[in-house]
């Protein structure tokens, strides 16, 4: 079995297949150091925590992850918090940085006897023969499996190979850009905090005791160079209303990366003998922290289906793979879209923008006041 990509989806898949005794090769373009240090997601859903625990992949998360069950919203009317762990289904997040999870998954995969080649870039994919061509320091190579798993993210070659076949592609550019910031500083507030402001959205998310992620909505044409440290902290201060709620704990900014909010879902998630999982299957905006969790969900479903096919010659679950995953992907997309509409009024001052901003405020009021609305939020925020 050949897997392209050593992110959360490829590594969870590889680990589960190795646990079933299936031979696996993961080809990963980046170096081991790059994969170990790439900071991205941090909020694992209850479902992800359960999958990792059930399959013996949760030792690091259980040791160093932190339970998180409250989020806060700030706007001109003040701040309110939602204890989502006591709402909806009562589920909570576990905060565990993605690069730590990936590091754990790599060492477990290798100890299960899995093969993993870093610095191996897949250049061509043939879904009919389940063959990939790749380039590494030794030159060009080719390898084939019974099946291929495309776990190479949102811009990968496997997604292009499936998209080129006659599949439907549901895509949407939300027209919003965030500057994703990592600060070498402890978190400033106890909870994830979403701030709505006429200047644009700002977010605060814990990562580790020393590192905090912030997001700032920025004009799509801005480059990271337009946002030096001082400007980031000043604008976060304005949007987070620090005069009213107290200062942010500042530190050096170690990453400033524009993230365009986009959704992109392929249907079906396969072509011939190539199956997609994670961002390769569906891109989702980070507004509701779903991407890594969808990756883990799909990897578990795909691992079970591949084990049936490879060990028991039963391809029914594999044939149903897209039908199993797509409704869950669309639920997450729907909630993520709901969050985008909640958090972003339009920038600028015209009557249409005023109307949209008033709708955002009304949505937030409803979330503040309505228990039914809060239960909906909690169930979808942590669930898949
Ligand atoms: P990944 O993690 O992108 O891994 C794909 C891997 O494939 C490799 N690759 C190739 N290898 C060989 N040959 C090629 N041709 C290759 N092309 C690519 C890449 O080097 C890489 O190692 O995909 P995967 O496994 O599907 O996992 C998806 C998640 O990483 C992603 O959805 C999340 O990080 C999204 N996300 C968040 N998700 C959450 O659930 N909770 C969060 O709080 C959260 N925060 C975030 C995020 C994504 C962010 N960015 C950078 C878009 C915050 C940010 C800023």
CATH topology of the domain at 2-69 and 93-171 and 263-339: FAD/NAD(P)-binding domain
Kindly state the mean pLDDT as a whole number?
95
Query: What's the total count of β strands?
Result: 20
Overall 3D geometry?
globular
Beta-strand level of the residues, as a percent range? 25-35%
Tell me the Rg in angstroms. Answer: 21 Å
- Oligomer kind: single chain
Low-confidence stretches: none
Reading side by side through the largest sheet, how are the strands ordered?
Answer: 6-5-14-15-16-13-17-20
Q: Cα distance, first to last residue?
A: 27 Å
Look at the structure and give the CATH class of the domain at 2-69 and 93-171 and 263-339.
Alpha Beta
What is the fourth-level CATH superfamily of the domain at 2-69 and 93-171 and 263-339?
Answer: FAD/NAD(P)-binding domain
Q: What portion of residues is helical?
A: 25-40%
Structural category is alpha+beta
Which CATH architecture of the domain at 2-69 and 93-171 and 263-339 is right?
Answer: 3-Layer(bba) Sandwich
- The total count of helices amounts to 13
Largest sheet data: 8 strands, mixed
Ligand set: 8-demethyl-8-dimethylamino-flavin-adenine-dinucleotide
Could you explain how this protein is built, in words?
There is one protein chain. This protein is of the alpha+beta class. The chain has a domain at 2-69 and 93-171 and 263-339: FAD/NAD(P)-binding domain. It contains 13 helices and 20 strands. An 8-stranded mixed beta sheet has the order 6-5-14-15-16-13-17-20, with helices on both faces. Strands 8-2-1-12-19-18 form a 6-stranded mixed beta sheet, sandwiched between helices. Strands 3-7-4 form a 3-stranded antiparallel beta sheet. A hairpin with a 4-residue loop joins strand 9 (121-126) and strand 10 (131-136). Helix 9 (291-312) packs antiparallel against helix 11 (321-343). It is globular, with a radius of gyration of 21 Å. Bound molecules: 8-demethyl-8-dimethylamino-flavin-adenine-dinucleotide. Residues 4-10, 27-30, 35, 40-43, 98, 121-122, 151-153, 156-157, 180, 259, 278-280, 286, 289-293, 295 line the site of 8-demethyl-8-dimethylamino-flavin-adenine-dinucleotide (RFL). 8-demethyl-8-dimethylamino-flavin-adenine-dinucleotide binds next to helix 1, strand 9 and helix 9.
């Amino acid at each position: 079995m050949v897997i392209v990509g050593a992110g959360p989806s490829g590594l969870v898949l590889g680990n589960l297949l190795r646990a079933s005794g299936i031979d696996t090769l993961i080809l990963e373009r980046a170096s081991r150091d790059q994969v170990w240090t790439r900071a991205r997601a941090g909020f694992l859903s209850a479902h992800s925590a359960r999958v990792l625990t059930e399959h013996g992949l949760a030792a690091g998360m259980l040791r160093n992850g932190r339970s998180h069950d409250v989020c806060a919203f700030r706007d001109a009317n003040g701040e309110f918090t939602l204890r989502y762990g006591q709402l909806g289904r009562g589920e909570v997040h576990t905060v565990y940085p993605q690069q730590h999870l990936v590091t754990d998954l790599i060492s477990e995969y290798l100890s299960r006897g899995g093969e993993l080649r870093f610095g191996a870039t897949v250049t061509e994919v043939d879904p009919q023969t389940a063959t990939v061509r790749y380039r590494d320091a030794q030159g060009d190579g080719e390898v084939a499996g019974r099946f291929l798993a495309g776990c190479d993210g949102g811009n990968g070659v496997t997604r292009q190979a499936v998209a080129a076949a006659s599949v439907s592609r549901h895509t949407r550019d939300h027209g919003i850009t965030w500057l994703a910031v990592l600060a070498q500083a402890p978190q400033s507030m106890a909870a994830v905090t979403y701030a709505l402001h006429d200047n644009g959205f700002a977010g605060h998310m814990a990562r580790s005791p020393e590192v905090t992620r912030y997001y700032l909505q920025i004009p799509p044409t801005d480059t990271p160079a337009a946002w030096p440290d001082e400007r980031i902290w000043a604008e976060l201060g304005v949007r987070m209303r620090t005069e009213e709620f107290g200062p942010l704990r500042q530190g050096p900014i170690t990453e400033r990366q524009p993230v365009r909010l986009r959704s992109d879902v392929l249907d079906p998630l396969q072509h011939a003998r190539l199956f997609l999982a994670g961002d390769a299957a569906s891109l989702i905006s980070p507004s509701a922290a779903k991407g890594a969790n969808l990756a883990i969900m799909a990897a578990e479903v795909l691992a079970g289906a591949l084990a049936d096919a490879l060990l028991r010659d039963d391809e029914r679950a594999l044939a149903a793979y897209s039908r199993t995953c797509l409704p869950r992907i669309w639920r997450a997309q729907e909630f993520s879209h709901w969050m985008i509409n909640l958090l972003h009024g339009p920038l600028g001052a015209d009557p249409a923008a005023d109307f949209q901003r008033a709708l955002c405020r009304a949505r937030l009021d409803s979330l503040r006041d309505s228990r039914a609305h809060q239960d909906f939020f909690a169930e979808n925020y942590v669930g898949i």
